[in-house]
Amino acid sequence: MGDTDPYGRLFELSRDAVTEIEIVDGVPIVRAINPAFVEVFGYEEPALLGESLNEFIVPEHRSGEASTFDRRTADGEVNWATISRQTADGLREFLYRSVPFERDGDPRALAIYTDVTDQRRRERHHQALNRVLRHNLRNDLTQILAAASALIDDEYDDAVQAQ
Question: Is the pTM above the cut of 0.85?
Answer without folding.
Answer: no
